[in-house]
Amino acid sequence: MMAGLFKHREALLLVAIVLLVGAIELRFPGFIAPRNLVSIYNDTAILIILALGQAAVILSRGIDLSIAANLALSGTIAALLNVAFPDLPVILLLAASVASGTLLGAINGLLVWRLSIPPIVVTLGTMTIYRGTIFLLTDGAWVNAHEMTAAFKAVPRATFLDLPVLSWVSLAAIAAMVVVFVYTRLGRAFYAVGGNPHAAVYTGISVGRTHFFAYLIAGSLAGLAGYLWVARYAVAYVDIASGFELDVVAACVIGGISIAGGAGTAIGAVLGALFLGIIKNALPVINISPFWQMAISGAVIIIAVIVNARGSRVKGRVILKKAEHAL
Amino acid sequence: MSMTETRHVPDRLHSRGHRALRSWESLLLVVAVAIFIANSFASPYFLDAWNLSDATFNFTEKALIAFAMALVIISGEIDLSVASIIALASTAMGYALQYGAGTPELVAIGLGVGLLCGAFNGLLITGLGLPSIVVTIGTMSLFRGLSYVVLGDKAFTGYPPGFAYFGQGYVFWVISFELVLFVVTAILFGILLHLTSFGRMVYAVGNNATAARFSGIRVGRVKFLLFLMTGVMSGLAAICLTSRLGSTRPSIAFGWELEVVTMAVLGGINILGGSGTIPGVVLAAIIMGLVTFGFGLMNVPGIVMSIFIGLLLIGVIALPVLYTRLARRMKKSETA
């Protein structure tokens, strides 16, 4: 029954998304043209990738405010390597970006795990440190499109079966994270630690290590998104994706991930990101000035929280669905 | 359960590490003095009354909010919308200016908008029982978004000369009005938190809200008042900042919410609620102001300063934990 409720939550969001898209389509036909939907999805792909990582962290009762700074630093490292060694294959640059993201995530995770510093403080600190490091690496200069090699910029834009590689990567990330959340011990540990850390200890789960792996995953996804962002927009500088961490948290919250940890799904985070992405893409279509965008997304977040709070009077979550059915 | 298995925040008021360092505030004082001395060596222009007075603007406005934020965090909540309240209050003042509002009206509007924003946050959080971190992420976008809706990419300018006093006036020689406001506010908040029953309630709510409720404290009302407070203080900061800059832009005070939270946490306010002091926040504000100013004198860009603040934040918070561990290890090796 509980599982049904949570399925219901995601279904509700899906219905909201369909209604939203339908309403826009009614006034402005052509919005649901496949080509347009693909482009909206592609525009939201990076937000989706980051929201998946953030979901792991928030589920286990943490928060990662450094996720956008991590993206910016990792992406900048890939861009700088590309400028310095134009002959390096793109796959190596991508690997460098992911490695950098993973390392930065590990730093967050270690500080939370080994030094017992609250996640919000750790990531508040590393957020400014990571962004500052970009300045030290680039001396404040921009890495521009003409400095990057064509191959470097081409990857996210290349299409496969009419879908850009950027979208494919995000689909792969969704698949991977759904597997992690639903079918692995680590995924269950996220829920257990977030739901009740003390109980988790007694069941033999290391709370600190679970946090560490959540940050590691969030970091590697941020590193992946870093290369994609820099290559897609063909520019790297200190302020790329500035403030994006809050969009990512917002996507998770809209998607029904409880900020207190322990409840929510990977698909929920994806739907939350899509909801934000559609609103962002629809505003120019329906002739609303982009200046409204922030106010509207703020209102959406508040409404989503209120709706979510109504649905979650019962706290907690069944972790072992199979065992529940067996009963 | 070993130390690594249960993650908990070092309780600075009681931990051994903390006692060994005497107190958080004395540690901050040492850091502040060290940075002051380092600054005076780093630049010959540092020890100049006007320069130092100038340096205070780096922290006074943020500190006004940080005092109220400290109380909110002690009560176990957080307010991430403060910088956006500044933007909205500043925008409202600029809008009123177009209709010929004078200085008293501008001040009333600034404080009033702050109060309304705080009430909105407070109602959502205490009235509907929603988590403050999410609500204020939402209102952060909403309030600043409304400023963008009103202003677009324009700016309001042309504030009356009398209004300039709040951000540019001097009470006595080099003592700016903002510095006086900082001192007065610090004292008022210090009294409120440390000497009144309301202050005790704030600690009680942050330590254990359920226990506080059973002991007759109206938890919701205390929290509502605290959000009103951050709102009003943000309005006050908006008046000072708008007056100092002489203009309103929707991007005003962008990113300040995190600096204000950093200031409070560096000042020893436990981010999980329940402990911390106002003198700590005062020292943290001064430290952050000195770091900004010192790096500025050495022509180090602001972003590098933020690396330092980040390292300082993590380093200082990690210190008691590291110290406790080191002490335990040394004790072990002695017995071995």
UniProtKB/TrEMBL annotation, chain A:
One of its GO terms (cellular component) is plasma membrane. This is Branched-chain amino acid ABC transporter permease. Keywords: Cell membrane, Membrane, Transmembrane, Transmembrane helix. The chain crosses the membrane at residues 39-60, 67-85, 91-113, 120-145, 165-183, 190-207, 213-236, 248-279, 291-309. It comes from the Bacteria. The keyword Transmembrane helix applies. InterPro entries: ABC_transp_permease (IPR001851). GO terms for molecular function: transmembrane transporter activity. It is a multi-pass membrane protein. It is found in: Cell membrane. PANTHER family: ABC TRANSPORTER PERMEASE PROTEIN YPHD-RELATED-RELATED (PTHR32196), RIBOSE IMPORT PERMEASE PROTEIN RBSC (PTHR32196:SF72). Pfam families: BPD_transp_2 (PF02653).
From TrEMBL, chain B:
It is found in: Cell membrane. The chain crosses the membrane at residues 26-47, 59-75, 106-125, 170-193, 224-246, 252-273, 280-297, 303-323. GO terms for cellular component: plasma membrane. Keywords: Cell inner membrane, Cell membrane, Membrane, Transmembrane, Transmembrane helix, Transport. Pfam families: BPD_transp_2. It is a multi-pass membrane protein. The keyword Endoplasmic reticulum does not apply. InterPro entries: ABC_transp_permease (IPR001851). CDD domains: TM_PBP1_transp_AraH_like. The keyword Transmembrane applies. GO terms for molecular function: transmembrane transporter activity. The complex is composed of two ATP-binding proteins (LsrA), two transmembrane proteins (LsrC and LsrD) and a solute-binding protein (LsrB). Part of the ABC transporter complex LsrABCD involved in autoinducer 2 (AI-2) import. Probably responsible for the translocation of the substrate across the membrane. This is Autoinducer 2 import system permease protein LsrD. It comes from Martelella endophytica.
